[in-house]
Design a protein that fits this description.
This protein is an alpha+beta fold. Helix content is about 35%, strand content about 15%. The protein has 9 helices and 9 strands. It has helices spanning about 10-30, 45-50, 50-85, 95, 110-115, 150, 220, 245-250, 255-270, and strands at about 115-120, 130-135, 140-145, 155-160, 185, 190-195, 200-205, 210-215, 235-240. The model is unreliable at about 30-35, about 40-45 and about 75-80 (pLDDT under 50).
C-alpha cells in the first residue's frame, strides 16, 4: 500500500529539490578549498593521492636539500683549488719579482707628483735652489743638491724664518682657496736664513712670484732635517705661484736634465 498520496507529491519534490541545491552548494565550496579532490569510487586509490598541504612542505624540504648539496659542491671545488695552488716561500720572492717591472727603486711622493726646476748661483757661486712644481701648480722650495750647504755637508745650526724685526715668515696665516692673508713674495724675497756651525750664514731667496702658503716649522726644532729629501721634511716652504706667470717661470729655470748637465760641467772644470 502506497502511504504517500498524490496530494503529498508536490511537497516531496520541493523538499528533494532543496536538498539537492544545498548539496550542490557544499560541493562548490569544497572545490574552492585548497587540497580538495573529487571523491573517487575506490577508497584505496583515494588514499594513494597525497594532499596538496602535504606536498608543499615536502617540496620545500627537497628544494632546501638540493641547495645545500650544491653549496657543498661549490665549496669543495674552491677548497680543492686552494689545495692545488702552491704559494712561494716567504724568504724567496724572486719568481714574483720576475713578473713585474722593478728596477730596484720605488718613486717617492715627490717624484710622482712634483717636477723639479732649478736656479743656480742665485746670489753667489753654489747658491743653488730647487723649485718643485706640483701637478696642481703649487710649488715647494728646497735647496738644490749642489747647494754649498749640502755639497760640503755643512753642520746646520739654525734655520730662522724671521727675516727682519717686523716680518716673521713662520707667523704667516692663510685662509680659503685664494690663500687670503698670505704674505706676498717676489723673486728676490727672503724666505729664511740658515746658520752653520762655521758661523757662516746663508740668506735663502724665494726665486718665484706668489703667495706664501706655509713654511716648514719642523726645521725650527731640527735644522738638520733640511738635509733630507723633501718628502721626508727637507723642504723650506710651500708657495702658491702667480698662475699667469707660471709658464714664464718655467722657461727661466733649468729642467732636471739641463741642471744635471750643468753640474757635471762645473765639476769637470774643478
Amino acid at each position: 500500500m502506497n502511504l504517500i498520496s498524490e496530494a503529498d507529491e508536490p511537497e516531496i519534490k520541493r523538499l528533494k529539490s532543496e536538498n539537492d541545491h544545498e548539496k550542490k552548494s557544499c560541493d562548490q565550496k569544497e572545490i574552492g578549498m585548497v587540497g580538495y579532490y573529487p571523491p573517487m569510487e575506490e577508497d584505496n586509490v583515494q588514499e594513494d593521492i597525497p594532499d596538496v598541504r602535504e606536498i608543499s612542505p615536502q617540496r620545500e624540504r627537497e628544494k632546501r636539500k638540493r641547495l645545500a648539496d650544491s653549496d657543498n659542491e661549490a665549496s669543495a671545488i674552491v677548497d680543492s683549488d686552494d689545495e692545488l695552488f702552491t704559494f712561494p716561500p716567504d724568504e724567496d720572492i724572486s719568481d714574483m719579482l720576475d713578473e713585474v717591472q722593478y728596477s730596484g727603486y720605488f718613486p717617492t711622493v715627490t717624484d710622482r707628483y712634483f717636477t723639479p726646476y732649478y736656479k743656480v748661483d742665485v746670489q753667489s757661486l753654489g747658491d743653488d735652489m730647487c723649485i718643485w712644481i706640483h701637478s696642481n701648480r703649487i710649488c715647494m722650495l728646497s735647496l738644490a743638491p749642489s747647494h754649498v750647504i749640502l755639497r760640503d755637508n755643512k753642520d746646520i745650526k739654525k734655520v730662522d724664518f724671521k727675516i727682519s724685526d717686523k716680518l716673521d715668515r713662520s707667523l704667516n696665516k692663510v685662509s680659503g682657496k685664494g690663500k687670503h692673508g698670505a704674505q706676498p713674495l717676489q723673486t728676490n724675497s727672503n724666505i729664511c736664513t740658515i746658520s752653520c756651525s762655521n758661523e757662516h750664514t746663508y740668506v735663502i731667496k724665494c726665486c718665484i712670484i706668489g703667495k706664501l702658503v706655509e713654511v716648514n716649522e719642523a726645521l725650527l726644532e731640527d735644522p738638520q732635517l733640511l738635509k733630507e729629501s723633501p718628502h721626508k721634511g727637507g723642504y723650506l716652504a710651500i708657495v702658491l705661484p702667480n698662475l699667469k706667470l707660471l709658464e714664464s717661470l718655467k722657461q727661466s729655470l733649468l729642467t732636471h736634465d739641463q741642471y744635471t748637465e750643468l753640474i757635471k760641467k762645473k765639476e769637470g772644470k774643478q
